[in-house]
Amino acid sequence: MTLKLYYHPLASFCWKALIALYENDTPFEAILVDLADPQSAADFKAVWPMGKFPVLVDTERDRTVPESSIIIEYLARHFPGPSELVPADPDLARQARLRDRIFDQYVHEPMQKIVLDNIRPDGMRDPFGVAAARAQLVTALDMLEEHMAGQEWALAEGFGLADCAAAPALFYADKAQPFGRSHPSTMAYLERLKARPSFARVLAEAEPYFAMFPG
Asked: Model pTM?
Protein backbone atom coordinates (compact mmCIF):
# COMPACT_ATOMS: atom_id res chain seq x y z
CA MET A 1 0.00 0.00 0.00
CA THR A 2 1.53 3.29 -1.10
CA LEU A 3 0.03 5.60 1.57
CA LYS A 4 0.56 5.51 5.33
CA LEU A 5 -1.16 7.88 7.74
CA TYR A 6 0.37 8.45 11.16
CA TYR A 7 -2.46 9.57 13.42
CA HIS A 8 -4.47 9.22 16.61
CA PRO A 9 -8.24 8.58 16.35
CA LEU A 10 -9.10 11.27 18.93
CA ALA A 11 -6.92 14.02 17.46
CA SER A 12 -9.01 16.65 15.72
CA PHE A 13 -6.53 17.54 12.96
CA CYS A 14 -6.20 13.83 12.20
CA TRP A 15 -9.95 13.75 11.67
CA LYS A 16 -9.55 16.37 8.97
CA ALA A 17 -7.14 14.18 6.99
CA LEU A 18 -9.17 11.02 7.60
CA ILE A 19 -12.33 12.66 6.25
CA ALA A 20 -10.51 13.50 3.03
CA LEU A 21 -9.20 9.94 2.69
CA TYR A 22 -12.59 8.38 3.38
CA GLU A 23 -14.42 10.86 1.16
CA ASN A 24 -12.80 9.40 -1.96
CA ASP A 25 -12.21 5.86 -0.63
CA THR A 26 -8.45 6.37 -0.92
CA PRO A 27 -6.60 3.22 0.23
CA PHE A 28 -4.09 3.79 3.02
CA GLU A 29 -2.46 2.10 5.99
CA ALA A 30 -3.43 3.66 9.32
CA ILE A 31 -0.57 3.80 11.86
CA LEU A 32 -1.81 4.75 15.32
CA VAL A 33 0.70 6.87 17.25
CA ASP A 34 0.74 6.81 21.05
CA LEU A 35 2.90 9.74 22.16
CA ALA A 36 2.75 8.44 25.75
CA ASP A 37 4.57 5.29 24.63
CA PRO A 38 8.32 5.98 24.24
CA GLN A 39 8.81 3.52 21.39
CA SER A 40 5.75 4.69 19.46
CA ALA A 41 6.75 8.32 19.92
CA ALA A 42 10.35 7.62 18.85
CA ASP A 43 9.23 5.72 15.76
CA PHE A 44 6.96 8.60 14.79
CA LYS A 45 9.59 11.29 15.36
CA ALA A 46 11.93 9.35 13.10
CA VAL A 47 9.35 10.01 10.38
CA TRP A 48 8.54 13.60 11.38
CA PRO A 49 10.83 15.15 14.02
CA MET A 50 8.28 17.80 15.01
CA GLY A 51 6.20 14.98 16.50
CA LYS A 52 2.83 16.44 15.50
CA PHE A 53 0.24 14.45 13.61
CA PRO A 54 -1.24 13.75 11.14
CA VAL A 55 1.58 12.89 8.75
CA LEU A 56 1.04 11.17 5.41
CA VAL A 57 3.83 9.09 3.86
CA ASP A 58 3.66 8.18 0.19
CA THR A 59 6.14 5.33 -0.19
CA GLU A 60 5.79 5.15 -3.97
CA ARG A 61 6.80 8.79 -4.45
CA ASP A 62 9.09 8.85 -1.39
CA ARG A 63 7.23 11.85 0.05
CA THR A 64 6.52 12.72 3.69
CA VAL A 65 3.60 15.13 3.93
CA PRO A 66 2.80 16.77 7.29
CA GLU A 67 -0.03 19.20 8.19
CA SER A 68 -3.66 18.37 7.52
CA SER A 69 -4.33 21.07 4.91
CA ILE A 70 -1.22 20.12 2.95
CA ILE A 71 -2.18 16.44 3.16
CA ILE A 72 -5.57 17.22 1.62
CA GLU A 73 -3.91 19.29 -1.13
CA TYR A 74 -1.59 16.34 -1.81
CA LEU A 75 -4.50 13.91 -1.98
CA ALA A 76 -6.41 16.20 -4.32
CA ARG A 77 -3.41 16.39 -6.63
CA HIS A 78 -2.21 12.78 -6.63
CA PHE A 79 -5.26 10.75 -5.55
CA PRO A 80 -8.32 12.52 -6.98
CA GLY A 81 -11.78 11.03 -6.68
CA PRO A 82 -15.47 11.85 -7.02
CA SER A 83 -15.25 14.60 -4.38
CA GLU A 84 -13.13 17.47 -5.70
CA LEU A 85 -11.40 18.34 -2.44
CA VAL A 86 -9.67 21.42 -3.88
CA PRO A 87 -11.49 23.07 -6.81
CA ALA A 88 -9.64 23.22 -10.10
CA ASP A 89 -10.79 26.80 -10.66
CA PRO A 90 -8.16 29.10 -9.08
CA ASP A 91 -10.67 31.55 -7.62
CA LEU A 92 -12.74 28.76 -6.07
CA ALA A 93 -9.56 27.12 -4.80
CA ARG A 94 -8.62 30.39 -3.10
CA GLN A 95 -12.04 30.56 -1.46
CA ALA A 96 -11.69 26.96 -0.28
CA ARG A 97 -8.28 27.69 1.24
CA LEU A 98 -9.62 30.82 2.94
CA ARG A 99 -12.47 28.87 4.53
CA ASP A 100 -9.98 26.18 5.56
CA ARG A 101 -7.87 28.84 7.30
CA ILE A 102 -10.92 30.35 9.01
CA PHE A 103 -11.92 27.00 10.48
CA ASP A 104 -8.37 26.10 11.53
CA GLN A 105 -7.27 29.44 12.94
CA TYR A 106 -10.46 31.02 14.27
CA VAL A 107 -12.49 27.99 15.35
CA HIS A 108 -10.06 25.12 15.85
CA GLU A 109 -7.26 27.00 17.62
CA PRO A 110 -9.39 28.86 20.19
CA MET A 111 -11.32 25.64 20.83
CA GLN A 112 -8.06 23.88 21.62
CA LYS A 113 -7.02 26.70 23.94
CA ILE A 114 -10.26 26.29 25.92
CA VAL A 115 -10.05 22.50 26.06
CA LEU A 116 -6.36 22.23 26.94
CA ASP A 117 -6.73 24.77 29.74
CA ASN A 118 -8.99 22.20 31.46
CA ILE A 119 -6.06 19.83 31.94
CA ARG A 120 -3.55 22.35 33.24
CA PRO A 121 -2.46 21.84 36.85
CA ASP A 122 -4.09 23.97 39.53
CA GLY A 123 -2.50 27.39 39.63
CA MET A 124 -1.33 27.13 36.02
CA ARG A 125 -4.58 27.91 34.24
CA ASP A 126 -4.97 30.93 32.00
CA PRO A 127 -8.40 32.55 32.52
CA PHE A 128 -7.41 35.64 30.54
CA GLY A 129 -6.30 33.55 27.57
CA VAL A 130 -9.41 31.38 27.74
CA ALA A 131 -11.67 34.45 27.81
CA ALA A 132 -9.89 35.80 24.72
CA ALA A 133 -10.26 32.40 23.01
CA ARG A 134 -13.97 32.29 23.77
CA ALA A 135 -14.43 35.79 22.38
CA GLN A 136 -12.59 34.88 19.19
CA LEU A 137 -14.63 31.71 18.85
CA VAL A 138 -17.90 33.65 19.15
CA THR A 139 -16.73 36.13 16.50
CA ALA A 140 -15.87 33.25 14.15
CA LEU A 141 -19.22 31.55 14.81
CA ASP A 142 -21.04 34.82 14.07
CA MET A 143 -19.25 35.01 10.71
CA LEU A 144 -20.09 31.39 9.96
CA GLU A 145 -23.71 31.83 10.94
CA GLU A 146 -24.13 34.52 8.32
CA HIS A 147 -22.19 32.54 5.70
CA MET A 148 -23.99 29.22 6.25
CA ALA A 149 -27.54 30.59 6.20
CA GLY A 150 -29.21 28.83 3.27
CA GLN A 151 -26.02 27.05 2.22
CA GLU A 152 -25.36 23.29 2.42
CA TRP A 153 -21.54 23.19 2.46
CA ALA A 154 -18.77 25.71 3.09
CA LEU A 155 -18.63 26.41 -0.65
CA ALA A 156 -21.75 26.31 -2.78
CA GLU A 157 -19.90 24.14 -5.31
CA GLY A 158 -19.88 21.12 -2.99
CA PHE A 159 -18.10 19.24 -0.21
CA GLY A 160 -14.34 19.74 -0.05
CA LEU A 161 -11.28 20.99 1.81
CA ALA A 162 -13.12 23.58 3.92
CA ASP A 163 -15.71 21.04 5.06
CA CYS A 164 -12.95 18.62 6.08
CA ALA A 165 -11.62 21.42 8.28
CA ALA A 166 -15.06 22.42 9.56
CA ALA A 167 -16.11 18.99 10.80
CA PRO A 168 -13.60 18.48 13.66
CA ALA A 169 -13.41 22.18 14.47
CA LEU A 170 -17.16 22.59 14.94
CA PHE A 171 -17.65 19.18 16.59
CA TYR A 172 -15.20 19.96 19.37
CA ALA A 173 -16.11 23.67 19.54
CA ASP A 174 -19.65 22.64 20.42
CA LYS A 175 -18.24 20.62 23.31
CA ALA A 176 -16.09 23.52 24.53
CA GLN A 177 -18.72 26.21 24.04
CA PRO A 178 -22.14 24.91 22.92
CA PHE A 179 -23.58 27.04 20.13
CA GLY A 180 -26.74 25.22 19.02
CA ARG A 181 -29.18 27.84 20.32
CA SER A 182 -27.11 30.90 19.46
CA HIS A 183 -26.02 29.80 15.96
CA PRO A 184 -28.72 27.52 14.49
CA SER A 185 -27.51 27.62 10.87
CA THR A 186 -24.01 26.65 11.96
CA MET A 187 -25.41 23.85 14.11
CA ALA A 188 -27.49 22.60 11.19
CA TYR A 189 -24.30 22.57 9.12
CA LEU A 190 -22.54 20.54 11.82
CA GLU A 191 -25.41 18.03 11.79
CA ARG A 192 -25.04 17.66 8.01
CA LEU A 193 -21.32 17.11 8.47
CA LYS A 194 -21.94 14.44 11.11
CA ALA A 195 -24.32 12.67 8.72
CA ARG A 196 -21.78 12.68 5.90
CA PRO A 197 -20.53 9.06 5.56
CA SER A 198 -16.85 10.06 5.64
CA PHE A 199 -17.20 11.98 8.91
CA ALA A 200 -19.65 9.50 10.41
CA ARG A 201 -16.97 6.83 9.93
CA VAL A 202 -14.37 9.01 11.66
CA LEU A 203 -16.70 9.58 14.61
CA ALA A 204 -17.48 5.87 14.91
CA GLU A 205 -13.77 5.02 15.00
CA ALA A 206 -13.10 7.73 17.59
CA GLU A 207 -15.97 6.78 19.90
CA PRO A 208 -13.96 4.26 22.00
CA TYR A 209 -11.53 7.09 22.83
CA PHE A 210 -14.06 9.81 23.73
CA ALA A 211 -13.61 9.18 27.46
CA MET A 212 -10.09 10.60 27.06
CA PHE A 213 -11.41 13.95 25.85
CA PRO A 214 -10.71 16.59 28.55
CA GLY A 215 -13.68 18.82 27.67
From this structure: 0.94
